[in-house]
Design a protein that fits this description.
- The protein has 90 residues and is an alpha+beta fold.
- The longest helix is centred in the C-terminal third of the chain and has 15 residues.
- The chain has a three-stranded mixed beta sheet.
- Helices cover 48% and strands 13% of the residues.
- The chain starts with a strand and ends with a helix.
- It has two domains: 37 residues, 3-Layer(aba) Sandwich (YefM-like fold); 46 residues, no CATH class.
- The chain is rod-shaped and about 90 Å long.
Length: 90
Amino acid sequence: MQVFTYSEARQKLSSVLDKAEKSGKVLIRRRDGRTFALVPEPAAASPLDVPWIDAQVTTEEIVSILRKQRGRKTVTTRFLEKRRKSMEKQ
């Protein structure tokens, strides 16, 4: 963890932020000896973002598909109805 003086942090703020992002935390020390921690805040993620599935579909596309499907029967329901009808014909 790296420690910067207040003046250094002020002059090189962009660099200090980059180092905080890489290391997780940097300290800034004032002249009077007080020390403050600069910690990056975690990025907000969408509940629809599933890292282990690479579907190449954006969140907007998923939401659009779901909105189109509202009020319609699901694929499973359609499949079961078709199967039931075919069984009745036999």
